[in-house]
User: What shape does this take?
Amino acid sequence: MRRLGRWAIAGAVLLVGRGQRRRQLPPPEPVVDAWEPAPRAELLVAGLLLLAAALAVAFIVIYAGGADTQLLGLALGLCFGTLAVASIVTAFRLTPPEEAEEPYPERFHSTEVAEVEQIASESGRPLTRRRLLGLTAGSAGLALGVALLAPVASLGPVFDTNQLRREPWRRGVRLVDSEGRVLRADDIELDTLHTAFPEGANPEILASPIVVVRVEPARLDLPVGRRNWAPGGIVAYSKVCTHAGCAVALYRAPHFEPSRPRPALVCPCHYSTFDPATGGTVLFGPAGRPLPQLPLAVGPKGELIALGGFSGAVGPSWSGVRE
Ligand code: FES
Assistant: This one.
């Protein structure tokens, strides 16, 4: 009986309330003064954002295709410049200059609002100018983000570090200069630095370039097991500094007094100095290990040839390289 009574009261309330008109809401007060739409400015901003996205993509393409430093800087600089112009136009032409606050209104007619939202979602989203600006801004942001992350690839191989250990030197490979001419033992003069590469191999492989010098045989004091690695006092070492990987490009062997201390290979980056007469040992500087030595021999026609691979790992020291 009590339940029946509750149902009766609820029905009476519904009947009474049905005849009443819905409470009319006053029209909302404008928050800021009416702001004139500026379709041209909106299109200009959208175009600038697209241009910024294209320049960011151009940065990635240039980086992937060989990374010309000046072109990279130009693409990135223009991208940021375009974004700056788009921001300025947005600030002056598309943003209302007034600030106002009002409490967030209570949500009336939630059922009707939900119906309208459903109709809008089912009828597809038209490309309004606001949406266009959002899409172009998102494209520019995404492309610029990828462009800024792209140089991370230059930090080196992550999954295949074995390529750092590959070397093109084998027994019998001839030494050639940067023009591809075969180096002969007679070409190597005392106190002169030569750069050589393995014949027929990719000169850009880390282990390809070597430095070749002739030291007086009487001065040679190579480690045990390398006695026959230096025909006529000619020695060869990796050109890649064992400190941080710069090219060992200097040979300290003055032709005038004072000519001491003795000749040495020098890396110009932080002045690591290596002794060619004692197996590339470190005489000075931050390098932590000797330059890897390449065993040499003289072929039947006087050409210089390798007797095998390097004495150690080529390149800067990283985890595990001293094993
Ligand atoms: S890279 Fe050669 S001394 Fe630092």
